[in-house]
Amino acid sequence: MQATLNGLDIHYEITGSGTGPWITLSHSLACSSDMWKPQVELLKKHFTVLCYDTRGHGRTATTPGPYTLEQLADDAHALLRHLKIEKTHWMGLSMGGMIGQVLAIRHPECLDKVIIADSTGKAPPNGVAMWAERAETARTKGMAALVEPTLGRWFTPPFHNSQPEVLKEIGALIESTSVEGYAACCAAIGLIDNLEGLKKLSHQALVIVGDQDLATPLAASEAIHKSWAHSELVVIKDAAHLSNLEQVTAYNNCITKFLLD
Questions:
Q1: Any residues with CB less than 8 A from the CB of 27 and at least 6 apart, and which?
Q2: What is the CATH number of domain 2-260?
């Protein structure tokens, strides 16, 4: 389905019974809502599930950059208003977790429980330069040049060896991402600075991180947990950045416990 909001054609899908509470899923950079397939299969039994593609990704339109996290959060908020969703649980991984943080800060009334997976609340000192370099690689060499280094950060070596089909699928999502969409989101990520804002939140939150996440290491999730008063931190063993795909059972067990208890 498509909705034109904020001058943007946003792609979204709704699954589930339509009678359960809402939960909204927000994907990582250089992916799409397709990365949530194992979680959608689980969640649709209990919730009405909204998946959408972020600006510049998947089947959502690309607009000229740079973007900001506030802009990306406002896209999500506009979609919730369009669908007349007054309150939703939120699950975001990596960039999706950053968007969720900003949405909670800017529009706290629209969120219930919040899951922030393999994300960060504050850019490192070299964040702007690092993300500018990746954006430049995309613009000069294309997204194909980013596939292998990105997969190297996103999954552990044993997973690379045992699950080539998953890597092929995620690699295809990376390569098919709009160059401008990727670069524009890199600019947003490089400036993230949410930790002080998180201290004002009263939502229940679950912070998840893979114990081998090189992209957003454990310390980044610990900082979110420390800043977010009503949060718990879960470290998933033998997982890197896309912990929802590398350790599906462990990931699904912890989100089920959090959401349904």
A1: 33, 34, 35, 36, 53, 54, 57, 58, 92, 93, 95, 96
A2: 3.40.50.1820
